[in-house]
Write a structure and sequence with these properties.
With 320 residues, the protein is of the alpha/beta class. It is built from 10 helices and 15 strands. The chain starts with a strand and ends with a strand.
Length: 320
């Protein structure tokens, strides 16, 4: 059987998904939607000669000829499109965040609960990164987790993202990683934000997990490169995530190892594995990656972290 997939949103993330899906055996990117005609056409061209281009995202979310849909449109459209796709019986890979508010994330989870089977995977793809997986494997030999240190340095040129956007577009990855590595939920958080004018330069998020372990997430904007670090300190030792294999190049009196400017380069393998795992799960009628419930749990931590950043208080995570 060929899995017929529609892709909504042909920006950077949409094009990444199209490229990765188009090379998979038994998967056809059938239609691409983008509100910008040229974007939709460019996305369809990447998908292959028979892919259609449309400008109405909802037409793809409810398309009768599709088995599945990827939602890679602007964040504030995710929840509506996911709910429409669930109601149309389509499997969904929804880019993170699942929604921009906890209430909307809850609506998606409720819509999925009312459907005959689980349908939604959320694009929290770091779980497919080999370096993250190696740390998770190493932790199995190291005893109980005491502390996770997660560092996320971004090269985002959009200098003036709002607090909500920085948390729900960027820190949401690290929040999910913390839940995934620990198998535990955030009980409370304290967040500190450093700004220069309207620009958020730095966020420090300290979380206490239900297990008793602690998590620190350091996020920095517009740095020298896109750089992600993971350190897990456990009872009997610690594990540090490897950096992607890159040669050390010596030239002009310097030794240099390329880091890269963005998440597409750093997580190339993870995005490819995500596409393969998501589609094989859809064919098996299962959700094998991060679920809508994971997306909701992460959004609850985001909401608590924003409240903490605004009030200076330590905030309990509702449902944590
Ligand atoms: C960006 O929007 C992403 O999608 C990346 O996954 C994230 O790591 C980055 O911080 C965001 O700015």
């Amino acid at each position: 059987m060929t899995l017929r997939v529609g892709v909504i949103g042909a920006g950077g993330m949409g094009r990444e998904h199209i490229t990765n899906l188009a090379v998979l055996e038994g998967v056809e990117v059938h239609i691409v939607a983008d509100v910008v005609v040229a974007g939709a056409e460019a996305g369809a061209a990447l998908a292959g000669p028979s892919a259609a281009a449309v400008t109405d995202p909802m037409a793809v979310a409810t398309h009768p000829d599709l088995d599945a849909v990827v939602i890679a449109s602007p964040d504030d459209t995710h929840a509506e499109l996911a709910i429409a796709a669930i109601e149309a019986g389509l499997a969904v890979l929804c880019e993170k965040p699942l929604a921009v508010t906890v209430a909307d994330a809850e609506r998606v989870v409720a819509a999925e609960a009312a459907a005959p089977s689980s349908l939604v995977q959320v694009g929290l793809m770091r779980v497919y990164d080999p370096a993250h997986q190696q740390v998770a494997d190493a932790m199995m030999q190291l005893g109980p987790l005491h502390h996770l240190r997660l560092v996320h340095r971004n090269t985002n040129a959009q200098w003036e993202r709002s607090l909500e956007t920085v948390f729900s577009q960027s820190l949401i990855h690290d929040i999910h990683s913390a839940r995934w590595f620990s198998g535990s939920e955030f009980g409370s958080v304290v967040a500190q934000v450093v700004r220069t004018g309207a620009r958020i330069n730095y966020v420090n998020l300290l979380g206490e997990l239900a297990s008793g372990a602690t998590v620190s997430i350091e996020f920095a904007e517009a740095t020298y490169g896109y750089d992600v670090e993971v350190e897990a300190t456990c009872e009997h030792g610690m594990a540090i995530a490897a950096q992607p294999a890159q040669p050390v190049v010596r030239r002009d009196g310097r030794a240099h190892r390329h880091i890269g400017d963005d998440w597409f380069g750093r997580f190339t393998d993870a995005y490819r594995t995500e596409a393969a795992e998501w589609t094989s799960g859809v064919l098996a009628g299962e959700v094998r990656g991060p679920t809508a419930t994971d997306g909701l749990a992460a959004q609850r931590v985001v909401a608590a972290a924003i409240e903490s950043a605004e009030t200076g208080a330590r905030v309990t995570v509702i449902g944590g």
